[in-house]
């Protein structure tokens, strides 16, 4: 069973690195979907937050495994739509960095709240990430394809976090989750300084 979990984690990880499958580098921005897909992959702040959401969902288990990532992706799409529609979402960059710091802190503290509250926390953070994606959509991009791209990339990053969390749970070493959370929080503090 451990080997199967490890294999699934590796499959999810490699699925998030589409550039490895391209025979000719530089084509990643030729389609609206790929442009959207690559946006979450291009920033450490986005990567850390997405992985942390998956890891937090895995550490909570049960309904949280699907509810937290689903709330994040759904609300992120709303945030992207708001930005594309010209609605000003305040403090986008600060909200993204804060999401990294707080998600790391939630992992360090092994925070356990009702699933609805956890989904709400994830959704709040997702608005900022979605708004950033929406604001950075190329002018010539198809909005629906671009949104699908960043939603799929985000979901895959959540799956990588969930897979990592599943591996941790198999070895029954929750300290790894807390150490990972502290590294995420420290990285978020570093991002706040630059």
Automatic annotation (TrEMBL):
Q: Domain of life, per the record?
A: Bacteria
**Is Signal given among the entry's keywords?**
yes
Instruction: Establish whether keyword Transmembrane helix is in the entry.
Output: yes
Read off the InterPro entries from this record. Answer: HupE_UreJ
Q: Which residues form the signal peptide?
A: 1-23
Please provide the record's keywords in A-Z order: Membrane, Signal, Transmembrane, Transmembrane helix
Q: Which residues cross the membrane?
A: 39-58, 65-85, 91-108, 115-135, 147-168, 175-193
The name of this protein is: HupE/UreJ family protein
Species per Swiss-Prot/TrEMBL record: Marinomonas primoryensis
